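User: quick one, fold this
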Amino acid sequence: MERLFLLCSGLLVTTVTSQHNVCSRPELQGNIEMTGIQRFFSPGVELALSCKQGYTPVSGPRKIVCTMNGVWTNTKFNCIPKRCPHPELITNGELFYENTVYQSTINYTCHEGYTMTGSSSAVCQASGTWSTPAPECIPVSCGHAPVPVYGMVIYNKAVRGNTTNFGLTAIYVCNPPYALFGNQLAECTASGTWTKAPECRVVTCPPPQDIERGYMSTNEKREFFYKEKVKYDCQSPYVLEGPMETVCLENGNWSEKPSCKGPCSVEIKRGRILHKGKKMWIQDFQPNRVLHQEIVSVYCMNKAMKCGYAVPTQCIDGTLKIPECFEEPSGIEFTLKSNSLPSEIEQC
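Assistant:
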């Protein structure tokens, strides 16, 4: 209370006046704001609060009131940043970001061999949307692969138009009698160019040579071109071992030639053998000949168990080794006791 003294017409008059406290403009934090520029407010005045652009209210009353003692009422009003949707992955590229709230940033990159169309970054806006759509990563174009003279290019997938994309591969093939010199594989690189094309050169081989105990499919005494072939076979009873044909290679040499391997004879005089599933006495095995790599079995005795068993042995180029367990019977044993031979008794 405050007293004032006034002098009116010679009289002293005392009056009482009342002065209310006022509120200063509130200091707002946490991204809260208010309208207007007024600096002082009378008690009882209400102020409407709102969130700054890019923020959303989450709790508490949105008004504060100036009290009689010049203090604003408390509020739990709060504002949080708006959130943008989570970005989707981009094909043939990567994205990097820490958050998706207002003012957050996404950075985009493309993998090697791809170029970016669109913006390389985006910012989360006050509206809750990203400032730019995600970019695309487009493969680098190379055009058609160079075709070598006397050759061709075979792509690993269908090609349409005049362009090819990064990562496409192809192989080079030369038309005979030309041979390939250089890298057979071609690739559209990240720089937009194809790997170096090879050359196609004429290649010839000298006349092929005969093989011992064999013959060729041709007797021509001329040079043979790249990839030309000559077949071989053996005179009877020799057996061909190795490839049946030889090919003129790109280095001007012939591929590996076969050889002719000789037959074997079974060097026993008395006893039975097993040949091609047939059991027979050696004297009935006519002609006494086992071809190269063929298998024949002789019979051995298991003396402990008193039973017989067949032991196989293989003919290798004219040599047939008789197993050590084989015991050839004497003439008397073979003639008088043939039923007791290992081939004739119970088999183990």
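User: anything notable?
Assistant: The longest strand covers residues 307-316.
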